[in-house]
Amino acid sequence: MRIGTLFVAAIAAATLVGCSAPGTIRPMYFPGGFNPFIRVVQCTQQDCSVTVAVTENSSANFCVPDVAEILDVSGGAAGQRNVTWTITTDGYEFSKESYKYGIFIKSDPDDEFKNVQITGNGKSLSLKFEHQVTGKSYSYALTVRRTGGNKSFCKTLDPWLIS
Known about the structure:
Helix content: 10-25%
Order of helices and strands: HEEEEEEEEEEEE
Distance between the termini: 54 Å
Shape: globular
């Protein structure tokens, strides 16, 4: 009888774990460490530049922006950073639509992100990151779309900023 009860309890526990909300999953990245599977852009200066290339899959009719998975601003002194993402592939722009804007900060409890601007005919997206709170990770989403007559959206990226 005890084995049967234990079995039912184990099934119930596995079900509850499987149904729970996933929460925030952080990348396997340690500042200063090496991970060959993750591309990192180090930003130790006030002005940071990140390039975004777009790959088109014409047979499946979708596009995918390609950017470093981690923007690491943990190096250098604390203080404001000006971060600029620039699309290097012709025929694409950051979205200016209010319902699907070029960047979406998924969590900003410390009000660290300010003044987002899309410039250069949609090729550049910049924002100010206050960098007053260190040791935190922020998830954000980048939204790119095609230019010209077909302004369909590309797949949305979910990279990280590590402070």
